[in-house]
Design a protein that fits this description.
The chain is an alpha+beta fold and 358 residues long. 23% of the residues lie in helices and 37% in strands. It folds into three domains: 48 residues, no CATH class; 191 residues, no CATH class; 27 residues. It contains six helices and 14 strands.
Length: 358
C-alpha cells in the first residue's frame, strides 16, 4: 500500500483515500470508488510512463584513420570545444567570440549517424540579420547603424533525435455556460462535464541539443529541421565548417526528450476538447515505449555582434534560413508607448463608465 495515498482520482483528479466503510479507495470529491487491486494497477501504469528504458545506442565508433587531420579547438573563456579539419582552422569561439587554441588532434566521442548539410551560405546569414532588425519598434536606432558583426561561423551542432510511441489518457473538467436575462436579473447557468481523451501518438526525430554551450531555447527557436535532407555522415561534410563537440550525452538528454514528447501529447489532446467555455485538466497518464535515439549534426550559422560593449548572439538555421537572436530594448521608446497605451485605456474606461451610468 506504500505510496497509494498519493494516487489521484482518474475521474476528477482529486486525491483518493481509503474508505473504511466500503473497504475501497474512495474520492472525497466525486465519490468514485476503486478496489485496492484497481488502484495498484492504475498506479503501476502511471509510474511506467517515466520508467521507459530508452535505446540510446546512437552514433558509431570512428573507423581507424578516419579522424586523421581533425583538430580540437578549445575556448579558455566559455570552455567550448569545436572540431574542424586542419584546413579550416578556427581563430575565435563561435559562441563567445574569444580566441581559441588548438589543444590536439581529435579523438574519442562517437561518430554521428547522420548529418544535414548546409544549404545556405554566409551571405544569406548577413541578409537574414538585416531582415531581423527591420520593423522592430523598440530597437534602438543606433543599434542598426552601429552594430557590427564580429564573427559569422557555420557550425554543425550535435543533436540527439528521439523516436517513441506514446499512449495517453487525460481527464478534464469541461464547463458550458448559458446566459440570459429578464427585466430584473441576468442569469448564468453552468453545466459541468467529465471529459476524457485516450489515444496513441507516434513521434519521430524529436531533437534535443547535445551542446551545453548552445542555449536550448535558441536551438528550439530555429526548428524545425527537415529530416528528409539527412544523409549518412561523412567527414567531407565538415570541410569549411566547424563542428561542436557534444558534451551532453544521449542518456543525459532523456529527461528533455520525455518532457517534449509528453507536452506534445498534452497539447494535442487538449486541442481536441472543444465546445466548452472553460476546460481544466484534472489528471493525466502518459506512457512511452519503443524509444530509441540517433546522433545527428544540424547546420547552424552563428553570428556574434557587438554594440555598446555588449555581445549579442544570433543563430540561423543553415537549412531553412529561420533566424532568431536577442536584441536590445530602447527603454525610452518602450516607456513612451506604454504611457500612451495607459492613457488610451483610461479614456476608454471613462467613456464606458459614462455610458453605463447614463
Amino acid at each position: 500500500m506504500s505510496g497509494m495515498t498519493d494516487y489521484k482520482c482518474p475521474c476528477c483528479g482529486g486525491q483518493i483515500e481509503f474508505d473504511s466503510a466500503s473497504q475501497n479507495m474512495k474520492c472525497p470529491f466525486c465519490d468514485s470508488e476503486f478496489s485496492i487491486e484497481a488502484v495498484q494497477e492504475m498506479q503501476a501504469d502511471q509510474l511506467s510512463s517515466n520508467d521507459m528504458s530508452w535505446d540510446t545506442s546512437a552514433g558509431t565508433d570512428w573507423q581507424p584513420g578516419e579522424t586523421e587531420g581533425m583538430k580540437i579547438y578549445s575556448c579558455k573563456s566559455c570552455g567550448g570545444e569545436i572540431v574542424a579539419d586542419e584546413l579550416t582552422g578556427a581563430s575565435s569561439c563561435p559562441y563567445c567570440g574569444n580566441p581559441v587554441v588548438i589543444t590536439g588532434t581529435f579523438d574519442g566521442d562517437l561518430r554521428p549517424d547522420l548529418v544535414i548539410p548546409f544549404k545556405l551560405d554566409k551571405n544569406k546569414a548577413k541578409e537574414k540579420l538585416k531582415e531581423h532588425l527591420k520593423g522592430k519598434k523598440f530597437l534602438p536606432k543606433a543599434f542598426t547603424d552601429q552594430n557590427h558583426i564580429d564573427e559569422i561561423k557555420g557550425v554543425y551542432v550535435p543533436f540527439w533525435l528521439f523516436d517513441a510511441d506514446a499512449d495517453g489518457d487525460i481527464r478534464y473538467e469541461g464547463v458550458k455556460e448559458r446566459r440570459w436575462s429578464d427585466s430584473n436579473y441576468r442569469y448564468v447557468e453552468k453545466s459541468y462535464y467529465n471529459v476524457r481523451r485516450t489515444g496513441s501518438l507516434a513521434f519521430e526525430h524529436v531533437p534535443v541539443d547535445g551542446s551545453s554551450r548552445m542555449p536550448d531555447d535558441l536551438m528550439e527557436s530555429i526548428e524545425p529541421f527537415d529530416y528528409k535532407d539527412a544523409v549518412t555522415f561523412e567527414k567531407a561534410y565538415l570541410s569549411g565548417y566547424l563542428a561542436d563537440r557534444y558534451d551532453v550525452t544521449a542518456e543525459q538528454s532523456i529527461d528533455r526528450a520525455n518532457h517534449r514528447i509528453e507536452q506534445s501529447v498534452i497539447d494535442t489532446f487538449r486541442d481536441s476538447v472543444v465546445g466548452y467555455s472553460q476546460v481544466t485538466e484534472k489528471g493525466n497518464a502518459i506512457q512511452l515505449h519503443n524509444g530509441k535515439a540517433q546522433y545527428v549534426l544540424y547546420p547552424v550559422w552563428i553570428l556574434n555582434t557587438t554594440w555598446n560593449d555588449q555581445k549579442f548572439l544570433f543563430a540561423m538555421n543553415g537549412q531553412t534560413g529561420k533566424f532568431v537572436g536577442n536584441l536590445p530594448l530602447d527603454k525610452a521608446a518602450f516607456l513612451k508607448a506604454m504611457a500612451l497605451y495607459s492613457t488610451v485605456c483610461a479614456v476608454i474606461a471613462c467613456i464606458i463608465a459614462y455610458f453605463m451610468g447614463s
